[in-house]
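Dear colleagues,

As part of the handover before I leave the project, I'm documenting each prediction I ran so the next person doesn't have to rerun anything. This entry is a single chain, and its sequence is reproduced below.
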Amino acid sequence: MAPSPAWPRSSRSTTNEARPAPVHDRHNRADELWYPRGMLLLPTTMVGSYPRPAWFTHQLAGKDLLEAFKLTSHTEAFHDATRVVIRDQEEAGLDILTDGQMWFDDYHMGIGSFLWYWLERTHGFSSEKLPHPARGKARGRDVWALDEAGGVAVDGEIRRGPVRMALLYRWAQGHTGKPIKACIGAGPVQLSTLAHFRAGPIKDRYELSRALADIFRAEIAEVIDAGCTHVQLEDLGAWMPHLSGDADYDWVCEVVDRTLGETPPGVERAWHFCMGNAWGNKLEGMTAGGYREILPHYHGVKVDAYVLDFACREMADADLLRALPGDKRVHAGVIDVRTLEIEHPEQVADRVRKVLRHIEPERVTLTTDCGLKQLPRVVAIEKLRALVAGAAIVRRELG
């Protein structure tokens, strides 16, 4: 085994014992570093989605869960599939689990109904898939990626519908004693960029994103009331200012704060913005500036952690973690979901070491770059096992 590197150290102990969570002041939670209660150093998780079991072929197709589940076969298959994918994560050894998002239909983009689950269940949007509003400005394979995503029309007042995030959380948490992370998105900024404004009081993406933020905030509040302590907002709208101009950084920050800022202490607020993942393809035009361009603009956002995409670029830009504010953590992507190649544990460990050159281990959760939905299930579970084994190697080195 190679000698242990000289890891960055903080005032916390770096032993491998479970740590108590810090005491938070409800009115000043930003002054404290959030830490997952009862977790080992370098806890492991995945971003959100997971491959459906081959036998789970039911689709919601825009229906409310409680309408679709009047069909017994759909109800049973959904709950069985959720139970199975949670069990896969438990067997792999993850510390923080997700429900695998079995409520994502098998739509275009590979990641399924990441966009459409929310659009179909929020009043005021049309039901048909339209061309993406920015298609005419796209170049290269980004044209295809935007065709995969599509667009939607705003036809009326934007009002909350039967999204049912709290119900999905309670169902999933009932299958395991480990914590379930609620993955919420695609988020308000990202969804607002898909809109054609045909009718109703809202006339631009700024107004739409604020209306959506209020809906998301209500869903998140109910998830937390149900007992969830890990909330992850999925909003690739973080990249929009690269295309629309620096003035829009303030808009993105405002909307994310409006969505997550009132979350009570004791709950981790994480924000995921990867490089895009349409059947494993990054969105090159939108993300051309990389994290180096956009991340410093978001240091003041009211989140506890950023969920970032590193493995597919062999940890490029990991040095940016050195500049994160002291109250911020990172969920560092150390598993590349855009390839079928299964990482070796030592390969994962080396990626983790590259992260720890720039940030204390107490401020790091290890995760996948993005959701795993488009991968074969046999590959997905082996990648999770490699993640856990790689984390264990580095924990041993830390002592």
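Confidence is low (pLDDT under 50) at residues 1-28. The radius of gyration is 20 Å.

All the best with the project,
I.
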